[in-house]
Amino acid sequence: MPIPVKTNPELVHTIFELKALSREHEAPIWRAVARRLEGPRRNWPQVNLSRIARHTSKGAAVVIPGVLLSSGALGFPVTVGAFRTSAEAAKKVAAAGGHALPILEFARQHPKGTGVRILG
C-alpha cells in the first residue's frame, strides 16, 4: 500500500471507506467523491446553504466533498453529507427539518448512491 499523501487520519480513513463502498455496491458516485477528497484542500468546495436552497428541492439527498457553511437560509428539509459542517449550518439544516451528516455516515445510508447529488 502506498504511503498516503494526506496526514489527517480521519480523512485517509474516509477516502479508503468510500472507495471500498464504491467497489462493494458498484456505485461510482462514492469513488468520485473520494477522488475529490484526495485532491488539495484548497480545491475542496465550500458550499453555503443558499446554494443548496437554489439547486435542490424538498427531501433531496446532497453530498458535498468539502465544507458546508451557513450563509443563507434553508426553507425545506434536505439530507446533507459533508466532510466538515459548520456548527451554525448544522443548526439551520436541523431547524428546516433536515439532517447534516458526516460524509461516511451519509454514504452508508445511501450505499448505491441513487438519488444523491454532488454539489460543489
CATH architecture: Ribosomal Protein L15, Chain: K, domain 2
Main pleated sheet:
5 strands, parallel
The CATH topology is: Ribosomal Protein L15, Chain: K, domain 2
Specify the structural class: alpha/beta
Q: What fraction, in percent, of the residue positions are helical?
A: 40-55%
Total domains: 1
Shape: globular
Strand content: 15-25%
Return Rg in Å: 14 Å
Stretches where pLDDT is under 50 for at least 5 consecutive residues are none
- The ordered string of helix (H) and strand (E) elements is HHEHEEHEHE
At the first level of CATH, the class is Alpha Beta
Mean pLDDT: 95
Distance between the termini: 30 Å
The count of helical stretches stands at 5
Number of strands: 5
Explained architecture:
Strands 1, 2, 3, 4 and 5 form a five-stranded parallel β-sheet that branches. With 120 residues, this protein is α/β, with parallel strands linked by helices. Helices cover 42% and strands 22% of the residues. The termini are far apart. It is globular and about 45 Å long. α1 (9-25) runs antiparallel to α2 and α1 runs parallel beside α5. The protein has a single domain, classed as Ribosomal Protein L15, Chain: K, domain 2, CATH 3.100.10.10.
Question: What features would you highlight for this structure?
Answer:
Ribosomal Protein L15, Chain: K, domain 2; 120 residues; alpha/beta; 5 helices
Short description:
With 120 residues, the chain is of the alpha/beta class. 42% of the residues lie in helices and 22% in strands. Strands 1, 2, 3, 4 and 5 form a 5-stranded parallel sheet that branches.
